Amino acid sequence: MACVETSSSRPYHLVIFGASGFTGQFVVEEVARTVSEGPKGNLKWAVAGRSKQKLEKVVEQAAGVLGKPELRTEVDIIVADVADPDSLAAMCKQAVIVLNCVGPYRFYGEPVVKACVENGAHQLDISGEPQFLEGMQLNYDSQAADKGVYIIGSCGFDSIPADMGVIYTRDQFKGTLTAVESYLTFGSGPEGTCIHDGTWQSAVYGFADSQKLQSLRRKFNHKPLPFVGSRIKRRGTLFFSNDIQQYTVPFMGSDPSVVKRTQRFLVEEHKETPVQYGAYAGIGGVGNLIKLMFTGMIFWFLVKFSFGRNLLIKHPELFSFGLFSKAGPTRKQMEGSSFQFAFYGEGYTEGEDPSQGKPSGKIRTLVQGPECGYVATPIAMVQAALTILSEPSALPKRGGVYTPGAVFAKTTLVDRLNKHGIQFSVL
Ligand SMILES: NC(=O)c1ccc[n+]([C@@H]2O[C@H](COP(=O)([O-])OP(=O)(O)OC[C@H]3O[C@@H](n4cnc5c(N)ncnc54)[C@H](OP(=O)(O)O)[C@@H]3O)[C@@H](O)[C@H]2O)c1
């Protein structure tokens, strides 16, 4: 079984790497809020990054925001730089789990995965970059298995709500679920909202490199996933959804890739029936549609050239109509923001034979929660880590590079998320 205990040489349950980043600071606050949920009611943790001064400031800020002055003396600081392998090794040797918030992962992620595998620490990240996530599976799965280490990507808003949402929908359906479509919508308060530049950079470089993903996938040599029931409907690149009453586009993030990898794992390891998945996002009314088409065309043109990428990276606000910014959202904006995933599933009800006729049963579920990037993401990441520490016997027997759904399908992660404001329900 994977190591989940601290020891004199591995003193921390969690080390937050990249704690000084925009997202990292909120992960620090979330860990500080949940220490009593750790093993024996006392989670041992430290912050890590390349600048001691910045880390001290983050701890100071968390102490002020949470009214916990004790953090100033209790939280240890580890200095580690992605460019310095010895510093990464020293950090990983001290942690049961590294919560890696250093991105874009395509540039900084691999040395951290390597150091975790070599030094026996589990790693959770919040990458939404399929190329990085699938590349790590290709290159480190067997080494992680040999070491009994879990490397679990996409443990933030990308892609825990979607991946666990499909599993939740399957578990709630009375019969054999065969297909799910999800529709993602966002809400914001009077002050509006935006996403920090770190995610914009990950997206710009991800789209620029998207062709490499196809050749990476061929290296897995996977057989096509079998399917049961009717083939899931292929919808166009833009349509009006009567269900969510918005114009809708295919969701461009990591969710489809992550859910598909999870389903493959469940089919191959547990002989479960695969669930086909389609992911869509609502973009709103005609006004937003025009904005999206305009920015989309400019984005697709610029992202192909290095001068264009430099322009996009330099001016996130200009090229995203204010959706991304170098300053990130304010706390007030975050308070007013929310997300909602509506899942529409179909399958064969109990007693029906999934090999005969068309699916006749339907189910509708919802996963909803607070602001996605810096409230829901830290909650998801921290609860995923606490699940590893608390429920080792419900995790896969072997270490490896996994999706959240593959690791947490048999755990109480959904219940934990429900208690922390990311709500799963059947409609
Ligand atoms: N899954 C989700 O839904 C979700 C949500 C939010 C964010 N994210 C992802 O999380 C990542 C971070 O986003 P962000 O907005 O927080 O970015 P950010 O503010 O730019 O933070 C980046 C962090 O990486 C650190 N870093 C950079 N180079 C480093 C190096 N060589 N060694 C050690 N640390 C280094 C930075 O340290 P310094 O402070 O010293 O510069 C900083 O702490 C992005 O990939 C983003 O896409 C995902």
UniProtKB/TrEMBL annotation:
Cite the entry's keywords alphabetically.
Membrane, Transmembrane, Transmembrane helix
A GO CC annotation given for this chain: lipid droplet
**InterPro entries, per the entry:** Saccharopine_DH-like_oxidrdct (IPR051276), Sacchrp_dh_NADP-bd (IPR005097)
Q: Which residues form the Saccharopine dehydrogenase NADP binding domain?
A: 15-152
Q: Where are the transmembrane segments?
A: 277-303
Q: Name one GO biological process term.
A: glycolipid biosynthetic process
**What PANTHER family does the record tag this protein with?**
SACCHAROPINE DEHYDROGENASE-LIKE OXIDOREDUCTASE
Q: Which family does it belong to?
A: Belongs to the saccharopine dehydrogenase family.
What is the name of this protein? Saccharopine dehydrogenase-like oxidoreductase
Please report the organism this UniProt entry assigns to the protein. Solea senegalensis
